[in-house]
Amino acid sequence: MNFADIASEAWQILQLKEAALHSVAQDRGKWRNALLCIGLGTLALSLCPLFFPIRVEWVTYRPDLFAVLFFALSGALARIFILFCMGLVAEKLFHSKLSAQGFFQVLGYASLVNVLGILPGLGGISSLWLLVVTAKLLHSEGKMQGEAIFIFLFILMVIFWLLPF
Q1: Where does residue 52 fall: left (phi above 0), alpha (psi -120 to 50 degrees), or beta otherwise?
Q2: pTM of the model
Q3: What are the pLDDT digits (tens) for 114-164?
Q4: Which of 34, 76, 128, 164 can bridge 42 by disulfide, Cβ–Cβ 3.0-4.6 Å?
Q5: 44-78 per-position pLDDT tens digit
Q6: Cα 102 to Cα 12, 75, 108, 140, distances in angstroms
Q7: Is the dihedral of CA 137, 158, 45, 100 positive or negative?
Q8: Separation between Cα atoms, residue 69 and residue 74, nearest integer Å
Q9: How many Å apart are CA 36 and CA 25, to the nearest integer?
Q10: What number of other Cβ atoms are within 10 A of residue 165's Cβ?
Q11: In whole angstroms, what is the distance from residue 5 CA to residue 16 CA?
């Protein structure tokens, strides 16, 4: 499968097409492509401060290439771990019909939206869209109902809000 096919499937997932959600979730060989999408998305997010330095009052932060690569690698590893753990929590605690691997694969593909994060401000917007994709995935493939999805996403947002502390 070439990159154009992977990007096309990711685009269909981001458009919330159930056929694409089902296809990627059920195909056990899609995990490698999900890793590629995660890697590209985190690399783009890491490149943003290189092209658009962060300025706070009189201090400007512009990372060097080593820092960009470090942030990309650590971000990708963290995202892989978090997505798999989220899949396990949905499957085991919330009794989702979707396997943890299927959850990981679909949201890994959807993580390609983070390439928008190379532009300031769009990284946050793309992350919010990933919440929408997660809700659709849990409803259509995981057969979870609205209240359980809301609780799952609420817990997820609280954890990520508290994570920096």
Answers
A1: beta
A2: 0.89
A3: 999 888 888 888 888 999 999 999 999 999 998 999 999 998 888 877 766
A4: 76
A5: 999 988 888 888 888 888 888 999 999 999 999 99
A6: 16, 21, 10, 12
A7: negative
A8: 8
A9: 16
A10: 4
A11: 17
